[in-house]
Amino acid sequence: MEQMRAAGFPEGFLWGSASAAYQIEGGWKEGGKGMTNWDAFVRIPGKTYKATTGDVAVDHYHRYKEDIALMAEMGLNTYRFSVSWARIFPEGTGEVNEEGIAFYQDIIDECLKYNIEPMVTIYHWDLPQALVDEYQGWESPRIIDDYVHYAKTLFSRFDGKVKYWITLNEQNIFTSLGWLTAQHPPGKFDDQKMFYQVNHHAFMAHAKAVLAYRQMGGKGQIGASFAYTPSYALDCKPINAMAKANYDDLKNYWWMDVYAYGRYPVAAMTYLKKKGIAPDMADGDKEILRQAASQITFMGVNYYQSCVCEYNPMDGATPYGTMNTTGVKGSAQELGMPGIYKNPANPYLMTTDWDWSIDPSGLQFCCREITSRYALPIVISENGLGAFDKKTEDDQIHDEYRICYLKEHIKALGEAVEEGCQVLAYCTWSFTDLLSWLNGYQKRYGFVYVDREEEEGGTLNRFKKDSFYWYKKVIETNGKEIFEEE
């Protein structure tokens, strides 16, 4: 709104960065860790860019003290990281692996030593392979109790030290890429009935974990992180406005309504029932979802891009076009659901090399939407730019494009705060460079450059990029640095 000019962020605002265990740790056979679904999946030919794996990743497993010291030098006051389930329970359940617990306890203690608030993601896509072998993982309702047992173990062991918990990371992404497009484990294609069933099991796992946390006396902040792609109607033609409404129900509210209200969107559920692909629910599920919705304290948002919605004829775009995983601009195909919506490119926005629209206003848009629709505080749990960073001969990385990207998004976030949105934290993706699930190591996101490419090897040495020093100043001024430049 024009009359509202952002000047900074509230006192106590958390400035952070985020990571995921599989993408940074390495040490895939060390410390008693069990096999994960990703350890198995990356060994299937053709599944990842140039057959990259997380076996070594960027070796955070051995270098976490170095990395956290760099976070402290930058001034981060929160670090969002995930726990690998298979490090805690190598077989998914059973006896606790104390060496795995100790590793994450050390990370938490190292953060607290530097006054960095640990923000723990319980599940960020790496599932113990033993549970896949035993009952197909998320496809079985048995996963719910095993997940809750795992979550309760973390709540108990890290009690008093962790105040921010994220139950699930991007449930909408790991389920769609796993059961609709075959790009993530378990690599199934167009299994729509199972896609919705898997999501219901994940919702129930989230809900029961939230309730367990409160029953155990947990007083901290808890919620899920959703990959939110806000939508704009192509134009004011009613059929395109309705395409946007359908998109939102099926691609956004299907998840956020369950987290915040404990119920599915009515129109979307009616549509799925008519198609015969709605999830089956056990007696009592609806009440559990409602109870958990009253106990979450924030909506986690991973924001990277917005989209455009247009009516899609029955012979139009499908959900199964080519995704750009190479960084060759323009190689992504238009996607959609026949008879409902499609997502054409936005001619008013620039894109990354991976064809993701660059839209800082979309971040403000989604914060406003969450505030008005759910009246929940917001944690921006991911936001960042993947790019082809290059290190010079004198070990400099000049990533002014990342500084520009983050600056404009933080400005938009500041506007949302000025308009009344309660935003608790902003976490960039990511602190160091890391493994991008489908894009290898060429797609760099970090403030810290890691010396490695697709093949195993490289020194793995860390080098601070220009953006490192810029974000340090942003944190020092609590965001005022950005707005004072205007």
From TrEMBL:
It is an enzyme of class 3 (hydrolase). One of its GO terms (cellular component) is cytosol. Gene3D superfamilies: Glycosidases. The active site is at residue 382. Keywords: Glycosidase, Hydrolase. The keyword Iron-sulfur does not apply. One of its GO terms (biological process) is carbohydrate catabolic process. This is 6-phospho-beta-glucosidase. It comes from Catenibacillus scindens.
